[in-house]
Specification:
Arc Repressor Mutant, subunit A, two-stranded antiparallel ribbon, Four Helix Bundle (Hemerythrin (Met), subunit A), 2 strands, mainly alpha, 2 domains, 75% helix
Length: 255
């Protein structure tokens, strides 16, 4: 009787490259690799348990997507977003999401999808109740993580309902790039959370009513408000960085 082959099939190169891509992307999104950080191919390959080849291939893809960039010294660093880059990303996100929500409102949504969107809205209400009962001024890290997940899911589901996978992919990449700077922020305050919940609720109602123009306008206003918040945060961060630099120079001069 012939023996059954026990040949071990190594993990495909595509699978390893995908794991390398997700590893680097996750480190950027979590803040482990901060903006301006120099990448070490050797360290990443060691962590992944692979050669440097899939790391280099993943880096090439992330360079094309804008999450990584070449440093003046020739290395690869995590992209440091400029103010203009943040504004450009929000404008791109607005154009794509407004188109998508208009299509969804025009076509209408099923009751099951309405329930899923309402469930995501309910998570924000839970967080608001937790803030009120605790007396805290803003969401803590764990709560902010829950909010971010529900917020991303709300927007992503609306785009999925538009049945355009390319729009969803670009918007997801855009939001990830914005979070490169956003991870430095503190948690949402109660008034911010209330505003976002109100915006989401009104957008959903316009979609349910199949009011295309209102759905588009509400979502555009919502994204523009988020963009203005993020730009204000960037301006504050930039001022604080400049002041810190001046303080360091002054300290050196006094030595």
């Amino acid at each position: 009787m012939p023996r059954r082959s026990t040949t071990h099939h190594p993990e495909s190169s595509n699978s390893v490259r995908r794991r390398a891509y997700l590893l680097i992307q996750r480190k950027i999104a979590s803040g482990e690799l901060k903006a301006g950080t120099l990448l070490s191919e050797l360290a990443l390959a060691t962590e992944l348990g692979s050669s440097r080849t899939p790391i280099r291939e993943a880096v090439g893809q992330l360079l094309a997507e804008g999450l990584l960039e070449l440093s003046p010294g020739g290395g690869i660093i995590v992209t440091q977003l400029t103010r203009q880059a943040i504004q450009d990303l929000y404008e791109l996100r607005e154009a794509l999401e407004v188109f998508a929500v208009g299509r969804v409102a025009q076509n209408g949504i099923r009751s099951s999808d309405r329930e899923r969107l309402n469930h995501l809205l309910a998570e924000t209400q839970v967080l608001l109740k937790e803030l009120k009962s605790s007396g805290a001024q803003e969401l803590n890290a764990g709560q902010m993580k829950r909010f971010t997940l529900s917020d991303l899911s709300f927007h992503a589901l609306l785009i999925r309902l538009a049945a355009n996978a390319r729009i969803l992919k670009v918007v997801n990449e855009t939001r990830l790039m914005i979070r490169i700077f956003g991870i430095q922020r503190s948690g949402h305050k109660r008034e911010e959370l209330e505003r976002i919940h109100r915006h989401h609720k009104d957008i959903l109602q316009a979609v349910i009513d199949q009011d295309v123009d209102r759905a588009r306008k509400l979502l555009a206003d919502h994204i523009q408000a988020s963009a203005n918040e993020r730009l204000d945060e960037f301006d504050l961060w930039e001022r604080e960085s400049q002041l810190a630099g001046l303080d360091a120079i002054e300290a050196l001069q006094l030595q």
